[in-house]
Amino acid sequence: MDLLAAVRQGFQTIDADPALKEKAAQFLETWLNHADFAAYRPQIEWMIQSEKWSGLLDSFYQVLPFGTGGRRGAVGIGPNRMNLWTLGASVQGHCEYLRQRFPGTNPLRVVLAYDVREYRDKRGVYNKDLPNPVMNLSSRDFCQFAAGVYAANGIQSHILPGDSKRYLSTPELSYTIRFLGAHGGLNMTASHNPPDDNGSKFYDERGAQPVPPDDQIMSDFVDQVTVIRQMPWADVVKSGKALFLDNAPHEAYIEVCRKQSLVPAPKTGEIRVVYTPLHGVGGMCVGEVLEAQGFKPIFVPEQSEPNGQFPNVTKTPNPEVPECMDRAEKLAKEKQADLVISTDPDADRLGGLACTTTDGKGAFRFLTGQEIAALLTHFKLSRRASAGDLPASPIIATTEVTTGQITRISRHFGAQIVNDLLVGFKYIAEVLWQLESTGQYGDVKGTPADFVIATEESHGILATDQIRDKDSACAALLLAELSLHLKRQGRTIPELLVDLARQFGYYRNELLNIVMTGVEGKRDMAKMLDTLRATPPKEIGGLPVVGFEDLRDENGRMGSYKGETDKAARNFLIFRLDDGKSVSAKVCLRPSGTEPKAKAYIEVSSLPMTAGTPEADWAATQKLIDTTVQRVATDFLTRALATVGATPQPGADKLSR
Asked: Keyword Transferase on this protein (predicted)?
């Protein structure tokens, strides 16, 4: 039996759409026989001979989707994996897009950045004794290959020298595009994904990821690629199309971050801040900003060296996960620190732990992304209001799944708020662009000078309009200064969280990840959302559903689709709940754009605490919210999985506390 016949027979053992099986077989035929893929053939043959049918089907049934401005996924062999072919097709499409967007412009210029990743096949997918062209591919390798595609298309690349020990964080890339007046950019990063993942994020001339319909136009160009023009890295350097970055953009970026300062710098020994970049690039932005502002951050030594294997990180290098800061917490206790700050590998997300006492001897409390968003929004509004330099009509921006407490905080300070954005910082960047170009976004009027802060639940903060992606450096400075400001008053961040709950309402925001992997998972995820949109529940966790919104509804507030990328981003369901008395709730469900799972965002909140409320009554209110959020989470997860004939695994409905 020949290889393709064996593949087709093997695919019959898998429960999947026959059309997907045939598509996978067609791609396999190309990769087995075309000269461009000859280097991959030994591993493909081994997988066929080893009857790895599920892995082959998942690797070959589609081209890795060009999602919200790029591709991200497991590095590997096949069109549904990150490799030089899938990257090359993306970059070639980007070249065509740039030529259409800037007709007659010569030279076109892009800024390239990369993180610390290097593929090692930690999942044990391939035969370690056979040649493997993806083995040891680093983000730097990917980026230099991309520079070769740009160069072959006549486009210059601003990139770090090949022997540089530096890295550019995601926010610094955004800033550098604007600083240099480049026409776009590319970041090779998989953010906080597992070590063997990688991805390509494309940026426009504004330093943001494109939004619909521009992302659809670029995606169409990528899909139409049949030939990838490419030039070896050494030839790119010789040709002069590699424009090596000097320190000017970096120094300007650090200065922009420092200008976000809201309080006088700390005196020697006044505050202790422990910082960990979790083996990522954060030391070259967050570390420098904190140091320059006098905070003298205490680095976690075993996590300070950039290392794409993240060897000393528990679980995952993601500030959303408390366990990743276990070493930082241990050091903070030894040093009697006030605050722990962590950042993810590409340094756009920020996490933290705050000491419960002002002497550094207390326990440390994990700060969720929702809490950081509320804390920094309140801090910046209140400090600027006290200083008398708050704009006459300040503007706050946040997403549909970020805590509603921010809306109440913003309105308290008389701020305008955009609070219904889709998930993704590119939509926040679009608010700034609309303000910049038209002076208006929806009902909100103003200019970027009126912008104060933007936040999202997944630990993303933007504190200046000069950057157009989430930025941990500015956020780290604000969080450190908030801790310092409170310490000067004899207070702590955990105490401020209590005060915010009393003043603006007690909010419990929780996230459930419904993991669905492979071809079957993609099918079930689609069925789950389609079933819930067709027959939304009347109640969830005992609370009546008083409003249901399907953002794919073209008769709804978002109108007609701006392309398939827009349609995909709007695969988003909102259930609004209310007991008719004092408890409000919301459940949002959407597929992740970067990982094989659906995300259920659950919010349950109370009214603000009124003056004279007995402490016992307020404690009872908080207990009611806590029990309600668990009930809603358990019930919704059960209903969602029932749509695909599944039941929750034990502990799947476990919340953050």
From this structure: no
Are 395 and 356 within one domain? no
Give the SS3 label for residue 90: helix
CATH label of the domain that carries residue 321? 3.40.120.10
Judgement on whether residues 546 and 470 belong to the same structural domain of the protein: no
Residue 191 is among the residues annotated as catalytic for this protein: yes
Alpha-helix runs per DSSP H in 191-302: 214-223, 233-239, 248-258, 286-292
Per residue in 222-253, pLDDT tens? 999 999 999 999 999 999 999 999 999 999 99
How many structural domains compose the chain? 5
Helix, coil or strand: residue 113:
strand
Catalytic residue among 191, 261, 304, 584: 191
Kindly provide the residue ranges of all beta strands, DSSP E only, lying in 529-591, ordered along the sequence.
539-540, 543-550, 573-578, 584-591
Q: Are residues 110 and 235 in the same domain?
A: yes
Looking at the fold, whether 478 and 540 belong to one and the same domain comes out as: no
Q: Supply the pLDDT for residue 137.
A: 97
Q: Average pLDDT of the chain?
A: 96
Q: What does pTM read for this prediction? A: 0.95
Tell whether 145 is covered by a domain. Answer: yes
Q: Which of 502, 535, 557 is the last residue of a domain?
A: 502
Long-range contacts of 15-23 (CB under 8 A, 24+ apart): 15/520, 16/57, 16/61, 16/519, 16/520, 16/523, 17/519, 17/523, 20/57, 20/61, 20/62, 20/519, 21/57, 21/61, 23/60, 23/61, 23/62
CA angle 149, 152, 154 (to 5 degrees): 110
Q: If you ran DSSP here, which 8-state letter would residue 166 be given?
A: -
* pLDDT at residue 1 tops 70: no
Nearest to 545 by CA among 525, 573, 572, 524: 573
**Distance between CA 279 and CA 306 in Å, rounded?**
4
Determine how many CB atoms are found less than 10 A away from the CB of residue 38: 12
> How many C-beta neighbours within 10 Å does residue 597 have?
16
Residues 490 and 376 in one domain: yes
| Segments forming the whole domain that contains residue 539 | 505-642
